[in-house]
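Predicting holo structure, zinc ion bound.
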Amino acid sequence: MTSADSRRPHPVDRHGDPLTFALSGFLAEPAGSVRDYSIEAVAVTPEDDLELDGPVSATVRLSRTNRGIVVDATLRTSIRGECSRCLRPVVTSVEGRIDEEVLPVIDIASGQPVALEEGEDLETARLTDHHELEMRPLVEAAISLEEPIAPLCEPDCPGLCAECGERLEKGHGHGDGPIDPRMEALRAFRFDADGENR
Ligand SMILES: [Zn+2]
Ligand SMILES: [Zn+2]
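Done. Tokens:
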């Protein structure tokens, strides 16, 4: 997999990451405030050996709630895979969704730590200590969910020939007559015997 690895983008510098948002100003705004962002062509490398065919674009709406920020985002990218019938490479366009409340670690008004309520375990997304939203992990997780289970190269992909393993292109067959495995075997035997195998 060295060729795949060499295509991976370099590790991200969080400070320049377009998926990181500095939100101390926004946190000072009242609940109900909204900010919209449009993000073009960010390189993302989800886990699970998922291979993207291109960068991720996103529309993001951040809404201030009483406790934190709701991230509402639509993500667009394409995922590489192989056709589940004929194994040809397939690129599937996908649209991922994020709809998640992210809570601050420090309350910006009081400077006090924000406590999680019961039922909010360590999985709850948090802003950083510096009131930044690091959206990258949310993006990676949302795209991983969109991995197609059984992609097809085309809706009516004919699949592979049970006899020879080739893709069943139009007109694929073995010899002239009706395709009957028993007849095929007989004919092959006869040609072999006559020494004029095609
Ligand atoms: Zn196919
Ligand atoms: Zn065949």
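Residues 161, 163-164, 166, 172, 174 surround zinc ion (ligand 2) (CB under 6 Å).
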